[in-house]
Amino acid sequence: MPEQPVDYVERIKWFHQARFGIFVHWGLYSLLERGEWVMYRERIPADEYAELAGRFTGGEFDAEKMTGIAAGAGAKYMVMTTRHHDGFCLFDSKVSDFTSVKTAAGRDFIGEYVEAARKAGLRVGFYYSLLDWRFPGYFEPDKYPDSAREMVEQAHAQVEELLSNYGKIDALWYDGGWAADGGGWKDTSRTAMAEFWRSAELNHMAREKNPSILINNRSGLDEDLDTPEQHVTASEPGRGWESCMTMGDSCGWGFIRNNPNFKTVPQLLQHLVTAAAGEGNYLLNIGPRGDGRIRREEKERLAALGEWLGINGEAVYGSQRCELPGGMIGAWTRSGRTGYLHIFRWPGEEAVIPLVAAKALSAKLLSTGEDVEVRQEHNGRLVFSGLPKEPPHPYVNVIRVDFAAEPQRMVEKDAAAWLEGRAGDR
Ligand code: JFZ
Q: pTM of the prediction?
């Protein structure tokens, strides 16, 4: 008898604890160094593209190194492309020969990834593209209905393989459920998407195989997780969400040779903190080279994030929403009665947050470990004083504040009361 699906609140606990994951886009396209859409974007014929498999040996792909880099960054899970829109599988499949196991590499990279991730204490996610560009039926389903049907059947078979052959997988990250540009799909709604892929059936099977799995919203059904892409936007409270992002320009998740616009460490940290402040997760992408090596720009940034999380992790992992305003200087996260003020723009010796309707008992600057003087003035103004003139940590500094009650934002009696110093009741 199949196990019963596990209650949502229970299933999603680890995800809320985690807050930070590493996404990996790697495949044949990585060899061409022009992003993961290169086959379609450049209209490379299927046979010509398939020749790349003869060169894809992954000689430098080292799953333990990769998962070590992720764990060192302070990430708690990973999501790796098991196959992207080109249809090339990094796992062993009975229903396809277009895999790394049956071509030059002769390796099951997904198996290696799963084992290494578990060893490193990371949760394991699978990215799986429903669509496969090699099928004419994807682009012209009316003209090639058999091909379209085959493609859908292949997806069902492969998701089943992925959830059968690698033990317990924590997250299933669908992608590519959408209708092709200019293709034969008359109806581009999410309902039509879910009908085309038979997603209800597919996800039912997934949950039978693995009752605690988290499934994202990209098969046309909402399932467990929203997936804002390249921006950090919170879903409504109670709903799981995860913002995925590239470190470089948005055009490429797979390796791009010269990618000059890498985000800075403070930018990445602000995204992570903004996600944590909205009770969501940050899934930050890396795109290894064709041979599997991870580029220096990514390693350096991930190491810096890990260093920061080593000091400030308690303000991020398992974070809750906090009502308090961040003012000009940053954003708040919370854990019960403890508030964490993440300072993005260091104000100097004094920092002020207005409209705080809870008594602050004590405060501490996490980057130095020093206690911070804190007092409360009219209009709920919380004033931290005696701070260092210059930011002690170059990126983001966190002040932890222990409050006597859950830190709530003062409700203003009327919009002008603050002028008299009587914004709220406290
Ligand atoms: C998809 C892929 O096409 C892309 O290659 C990458 O894997 C990314 C993570 O996901 O791209 C998308 C998917 C969804 C949107 C935009 C790009 N969207 O919802 O706006």
A: 0.96
